Each structure stands twice: as structure tokens, then as C-alpha cells.
């Protein structure tokens, strides 16, 4: 059996990073040796939280977990996965809608790179948590802290 360390990449917008994302990281680090949380951004489109702040906030959250690193990228996910020497791509599924999208994405990514996608079902307690709902709540002035991992704060919600 190979003793090589296994690294997985967890790509997403993480705009913002939620308790659902954190739950996936926690479960996946039990299987893999290293996780790279890869914050994807579009050079022509600003997100809700600036990408550097997204990266810094997640880094701070995992400051005491050397097996979790955080990086931003704007290229194709599989190209970034190769650059990271990742053995697999981690994604999550909350609904049937997620399933259909993730299946197509996984299929294309596998064809392009040979890299497999590892799909985790959402923990039922987080299956309704999404970054877009959190953004919507913030827009209407609601407290979004209950949806974010403990200790994670963004300047616009302080
Ligand atoms: P993207 O912008 O690429 O859709 P997101 O940042 O929204 O990415 O999410 C990254 C991954 O995490 C996706 O695979 C998404 O399905 C998954 N995910 C998001 N929220 C949850 C959650 N509450 N539970 C499980 N998986 C989730």
C-alpha cells in the first residue's frame, strides 16, 4: 500500500464560508491527509465578500489545523487541482438539484483530468444552509452569524 500523503482539493466560491462547508472539511480530513480549500473567483466579477477577505477569514478559522490550507484561484478547477497535486476533488450535495449539477461537473472534470470527485451528502442539520441564502439574509439586515462557523467573521457583517 502507498504511504504517499493524500491531498484533496475543496473548490467553491465560499461567499461566504458556512457551517455546511466547515462540516464537509471536518468529515473529509478524517479520510485525507491534507485539504486545500480553494476559493474560486472570477476576475471580471466581484463577489459579495472580496476574495482576499474570504481567504483570510477561512485561514484564520483553520490556523491551528496545519492539514488544512486555503488558496484562491481563478483558472479551471481541474488545472488548479493538478497544480496542488490533489488526488481528488471534494464537493457536497444537499438536494437533487445539487446532485444533477455535481454529477455533470464531476463527469467533465474526470474527462478533462482523470481526477475523481468525492461527493459528500450534506449533514441533515446543514442541508438548507447555502451561501446564497446567507447573502440574502444579510441583505435584509438579518444576523447571519448562526450560519457561519464559530469564530468566523466578515467586516461587512460586524
Ligand atoms: P460553488 O460556488 O462552486 O457552487 P459553494 O461555495 O456554494 O460552491 O459550495 C462549494 C461546495 O460545497 C459545493 O459542492 C456545494 O454543493 C457544497 N455545499 C455548500 N453548502 C453546503 C452544505 N450546507 N452542506 C454540504 N455541502 C454544501
Identify the overall geometry: globular
Low-confidence stretches: none
Structural class by sheet pairing and helices: alpha/beta
Bound molecules: adenosine-5'-diphosphate
Individual helix count: 5
Please compute the radius of gyration using only Cα atoms: 15 Å
Element-level helix/strand string? EHEHEHEHEH
Strands ordered across the widest β-sheet = 3-2-1-4-5
By DSSP, the count of extended strands is 5
Task: Tell me what portion of residues adopts beta-strand conformation.
Answer: 15-25%
**Average pLDDT over all residues:** 95
The helical percent reads 25-40%
Ends apart, CA distance between termini: 49 Å
The main pleated sheet reads as: 5 strands, parallel
Give an account of the 3D structure.
By secondary structure, this protein is an alpha/beta fold. It is built from 5 helices and 5 strands; from the N terminus they run E-H-E-H-E-H-E-H-E-H. The protein has helices at 19-28, 51-61, 77-83, 96-113, 131-139, and strands at 7-12, 34-40, 68-73, 88-93, 116-121. It has a 5-stranded parallel β-sheet, sandwiched between helices. The longest helix has 18 residues, at 96-113. Bound molecules: adenosine-5'-diphosphate (ADP).
Amino acid at each position: 500500500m502507498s504511504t504517499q500523503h493524500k491531498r484533496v482539493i475543496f473548490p467553491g466560491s465560499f461567499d461566504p464560508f458556512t457551517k455546511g462547508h466547515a462540516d464537509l472539511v471536518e468529515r473529509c480530513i478524517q479520510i485525507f491527509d491534507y485539504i486545500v480549500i480553494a476559493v474560486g473567483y472570477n476576475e471580471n466579477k466581484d463577489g459579495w465578500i472580496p476574495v482576499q477577505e474570504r481567504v483570510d477569514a477561512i485561514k484564520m478559522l483553520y490556523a491551528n489545523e496545519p492539514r488544512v490550507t486555503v488558496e484562491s484561484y481563478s483558472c479551471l478547477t481541474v488545472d488548479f487541482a493538478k497544480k496542488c497535486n490533489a488526488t481528488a476533488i471534494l464537493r457536497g450535495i444537499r438536494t437533487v438539484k445539487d446532485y444533477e449539477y455535481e454529477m455533470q461537473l464531476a463527469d467533465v472534470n474526470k474527462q478533462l483530468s482523470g481526477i475523481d470527485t468525492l461527493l459528500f451528502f450534506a449533514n441533515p442539520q446543514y442541508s438548507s444552509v447555502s451561501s446564497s441564502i446567507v447573502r440574502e439574509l444579510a441583505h435584509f439586515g438579518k444576523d447571519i452569524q448562526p450560519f457561519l462557523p464559530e469564530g468566523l467573521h466578515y467586516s461587512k457583517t460586524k
